[in-house]
Specification:
This protein is mainly beta. About 10% of the residues lie in helices and about 30% in strands. β9 and β10 form a beta hairpin. It is globular. The protein starts with a helix and ends with a strand.
Length: about 210
Amino acid sequence: MTESDVIMRAFLTAAAAVLLVGALAGCDPDTGTPVTSPAAPQPGQTSQAGQPGQGNPAPGTTQAKATPTLPNRDDVNVDARDFEQQGHVYFQSPSKNIKCGIYVDNLHTVGCQLKNATVIPAGLECANNPAHEVAATVMNGQAQFVCLNQGVFVGPPTDGSTAPGFHEGGGKVLEYGQTIGDRSVICESSSAGVRCSVDGHGFFIAADQQSLF
């Protein structure tokens, strides 16, 4: 073997060693750039890559809001017959600011109106007329906000009086923690407000907030 052959073989051996080291080190043999693979999440860790159902939501997306817990038939703890007046079911909140009626006519399945509202849903014109009251109702299976200039959901005074100004109507008080049910309508009273639902559709109403679902 000539001296030049020895030198060439030594050179090839050294080059092969460099390539082997680069491969073991995770380098691209063409560029020498280190190549890394994503580490698998360890137990107890969450991915931050915004994958569906993992870690934080991807940019430009929002997390789904929790579905409100709706009252159901098992929650009913009062007898609707005790709240009947003139063939309809009426009730009011302990503050007497929220007055509600169930099946009061052929149009409204259930509805509640506020005597005084500190917040008015966007799009309503109740604020332009002090005589109009903010109300929420379910009509034809759909929940909506309306402005009322009369007591559509206000029952007669519980003492039977018709004299104006002294005997406030509204029906019996549905105390906080009580839930009433009449056919497909379920309503619950709490210190936060009144929530009513009809087959999964309904509303929440209070002086300082109102919502539909």
